[in-house]
Write a structure and sequence with these properties.
This protein has about 210 residues and is an alpha+beta fold. It has helices spanning about 1-25, 30-50, 55-75, 80-85, 135-140; strands at about 25-30, 95-100, 105-110, 115-125, 125-135, 165-170, 175-180, 190-195, 200, 205. Helix 1 (about 1-25) packs antiparallel against helix 2, helix 2 (about 30-50) crosses helix 3 and helix 3 (about 55-75) packs across helix 4.
């Protein structure tokens, strides 16, 4: 029983540290599934601790907190629940591609209110940091002064980020990185400034109104 409890404490500390690092610095354990595995291991050990220490009042309180959190996530149109399930399973991952020794890119979607988006991850050994995020709204606004929709999901682009079949590294310099969204037909090349993480070119063309 003590071993299970100590494992639970260790996983709790690791999960808390991982969440704080990502929330504050967008840094996490390397690999998409590392965070997913860490969370589910924590949940399994949490349930094991509740069962093993059920006679303790704290175990009952802990179970109540978990159930309450689940209920609260479902009440507001289940949006937090969907976000949780998409981010803590493989359902939210569309593409995960190694671009180079220093970078990988992925297309993910954790919200029912937004189209899946592109993320570029900088690899740092056992850790990684999200350095670029590009949404459909950013692509739509690239050459426009005004967008007539309020939510990303209301956009109807001709080619969505999520429709890409592959992600390819076209070019990388000290200050920029260019990624090809491969569709198998006219593709889309996005160039980002690595210093400020901004989108600066689409298919080699800069924004005319920026």
């Amino acid at each position: 029983m003590k071993i299970v409890f100590y494992i639970f404490l260790l996983l709790s500390i690791l999960l808390l540290a991982d969440c704080l690092a990502y929330y504050n610095y967008e840094i996490s354990v390397a690999g998409y599934y590392s965070d997913v595995i860490l969370f589910w291991l924590w949940l399994v050990t949490s349930l094991a601790v509740i069962v093993l220490f059920w006679k303790k009042i704290l175990a009952k309180v802990f179970l109540g907190i978990i159930v309450l959190a689940l209920i609260l996530s479902i009440l507001p149109m289940a949006l937090p629940f969907y976000t949780f399930m998409l981010s803590m399973t493989s359902a939210g991952l569309k593409i995960d591609k190694e671009l180079s020794d220093g970078y990988r890119a992925r297309i993910v979607g954790y919200s029912v209110m937004a189209h899946p988006w592109l993320e570029v991850i900088e690899k740092k050994g056992l850790l990684e940091r999200k350095v670029i995020e590009c949404t459909e709204m950013q692509l739509e606004a690239f050459n426009k002064d005004r967008i007539d929709v309020k939510y990303d999901a209301q956009l109807r682009p001709a080619l969505r980020i999520s429709e890409a079949k592959d992600l390819l590294l076209e070019k990388e310099t000290d200050s920029t990185i260019s990624i090809v969204l491969f569709y198998g037909r006219p593709n889309k090349t996005l160039t980002f400034n690595k210093i400020n993480n901004r989108l600066i070119k689409i298919n080699g063309k800069e924004a005319i109104n920026k």
